[in-house]
Amino acid sequence: MEQEFLFNSRGYKVPVSKVTDSDKAQNAMVIKLVQRAKQLSLEHDEFKRSVYSQVNDFIADMAHSYDVEIGGKKGNITLTSYDGKSRVKVGVADNISFGPEILVAKELFLGVVNGLLDQLDDEAQLIKDIVMNAFETDKEGQYSKTKIMELRSKYRYSHKSDDWAAGMQAIDDAFIFGSTKTYVLFHERNELGAWVQIPLVSKSL
C-alpha cells in the first residue's frame, strides 16, 4: 500500500502517519473553506459580468426605439423596478488625485476673491462662496474631489477674468487620473422608504 504524504510549509513531504490528528483536521478544514471561497469569488465575478452584459443589452435594445440616456451621464446607469422599490446602479469611477498645480489654482482663485472683497453684490458673494467651498479641506488637509470637479464643470465661466480662466486651466492640469473601476450596486427600499444597499461582500462578524 502506497504511503500517503502531506506537504509542509517548507515544501517537504511528511508521512500522514507523522501528522497529528489536529493538524490533519485543520488542514482539511482550511482547504475546504478556501476552495469554497474561491468558488464564491468566481460566482461573484460571473454574476457581475452577467449584470454588465444584461444592462448593456437592455440599453442597446432601448436605443433602437429611443434616443435617450437612462439614469445619468454615459457610463453611469440607474435602472429601477416598476414599483420603485428596487434598483440597480452600474457605473465607472475614476481614481483621481491632484498634482501640485492645484495649489496654483487655489492662489489664482483666491486672487479673484480678494479682488471682490469690497463688493457686496450677490454675484461677488456667490463667487466668494464658490471658491471658499471648493477649496475647503478635510481633517487630513485634503481637498474634496467632488467639490473641485463641481467648480471645474459647473462654475467654469462664472467669472470673466484672466485669473479665473487661468485657475480653471490649472485645475485641468492638476487632475491625475489613475485606474478606472467599474462597479455595480443593488438597493432596496426599507419600510421607511430609504434606499438600503444589498452587499455582495459579507459584512464583518
What does this structure look like?
With 205 residues, the protein is α+β, with helices and mostly antiparallel strands. The protein folds into two domains: 1-68; 74-205, no CATH class. The protein is 46% helix and 20% strand. It is built from five helices and six strands; from the N terminus they run ββαββααααββ. It has helices at residues 21-65, 101-114, 122-134, 145-154, 162-174, and strands at 5-7, 13-15, 77-80, 86-98, 175-189, 195-197. The strands form two sheets. It has a four-stranded antiparallel sheet. A two-stranded antiparallel sheet has the order 1-2. A hairpin with a 5-residue loop joins strand 3 (77-80) and strand 4 (86-98). The longest helix has 45 residues, at 21-65. The radius of gyration is 28 Å and the shape is elongated. The two termini are 45 Å apart. The model is unreliable at 68-74 (pLDDT under 50). InterPro entries: Phage_B3_Orf6. This is Sulfate transporter.
Terminal-residue CA separation = 45 Å
* Tally of separate helices: 5
Judged by helices, strands and strand pairing, the structural class is: alpha+beta
Sheet-strand content, in percent, reads 15-25%
Mean pLDDT: 84
Over all CA atoms, what is the radius of gyration? Answer: 28 Å
Net shape: elongated
The percent range for helix content is 40-55%
**Overall strand count:** 6
The helix/strand order is EEHEEHHHHEE
Tally of domains: 2
**Low-confidence spans:** 68-74
- Quick one: biggest sheet? 4 strands, antiparallel
List the strand order in the largest sheet: 3-4-5-6
Protein name: Sulfate transporter
Pfam families: DUF3164
